[in-house]
Write a structure and sequence with these properties.
Rossmann fold; Hypothetical Protein, Haloacid Dehalogenase-like Hydrolase, Chain: A, domain 2; 2 domains; six-stranded mixed beta sheet
Length: 272
């Protein structure tokens, strides 16, 4: 059976913020030579992952946790589907909590807009963005939330992220989902449309290319991979994933992302 291999990036295919593990890259290339197809499914926006697309050369890409779905061909990105935020509602809600917020960060397909370059954000950009990465500084009032697919919020020091997540979620209602997560010691809130996930992005690709979930193998390691790992025919959690992700997967890799666990698994599972 021809397989569609959907891979997450951070914590899955990347050995660090800027490098694809060599064994993983080798495994993906070997799979393509056997006629299988690759999909990158990431929480990153296009601006933070296009360098990896050029290395992997997938058939398609799901970015911003499913909010943007693209066809990829020889370094060209063609948008198939895009789901933007309701700008007015998100902005009004964040205005209520402005005193607790250090920085607001909007991802709008191929643009990054921030209210201020907080030191923690600067470190993240330096370690997880390609050379020449650009962003635009704007105040909260100047931000056009309706052009964005994802909103990230960096809270002030001392603010309990989970309590604040619950408060913002209550104000936004069921139309949105708010996640609290920690990235290398820095706490963020992520606001996205509730009906969007990597799984919905893959479903759009199924309709576009005539694929099925049964054909799909997916690799992931975090909360934003949950729906994808459950939807596909064979969901694989990384051995470095938290227990709740490993528990819902069909299998778990022997090797971590640092050791190229995706590639090692593909060589064995697909008999490459």
């Amino acid at each position: 059976m021809k397989r569609i291999i959907a891979i997450d990036l951070d914590g899955t295919s990347l050995s660090d913020g800027q490098t694809i593990a060599q064994e993983t890259l080798n495994g993906l290339q070997a799979a393509k030579l056997q006629g299988h197809e690759i999909v990158i499914a990431t929480g990153r926006p296009l601006s933070a992952m296009h360098q990896f697309a050029k290395q992997i050369e997938p058939t398609a890409i799901v970015t911003s946790n499913g909010a943007v779905v693209m066809h990829y061909d020889e370094a060209n990105f063609t948008v198939i589907h895009q789901c933007n935020l309701d700008g007015g509602k998100v902005k009004a809600t964040l205005n209520l909590f402005e005193k607790d917020i250090a920085t607001i960060w909007l991802e709008a397909h191929d643009q990054t807009l921030i209210t201020s370059l907080h030191p923690n954000l600067q470190i993240m950009f330096e370690t997880h963005r390609p050379p020449g990465f650009e962003y635009t500084l704007k105040t909260l009032d100047q931000h056009d939330f309706s052009m964005a697919q994802v909103c990230l919020v960096l809270l002030n020091d001392g603010i309990d992220a989970e309590i604040k997540r619950q408060s913002i979620q209550k104000n936004l209602g069921d139309e949105y989902v708010v996640h609290a997560f920690d990235h290398e010691g820095v706490g963020f809130l992520e606001i996205a449309s509730a009906n969007v996930s990597k799984a919905t992005g893959l479903e759009i690709l199924n309709r576009t290319y005539g694929w099925t979930f049964e054909q799909m193998i997916a690799f992931g390691d975090q909360y934003n991979d949950f729906e994808m790992l459950q939807a596909v025919g064979h969901g694989v959690a990384m051995c470095n994933a938290p227990e709740f992700i490993q528990a819902i997967a069909d299998d778990v890799t022997m090797d971590s992302n640092i050791s190229g666990g995706v590639g090692t698994y593909l060589y064995q599972y697909l008999k490459l």
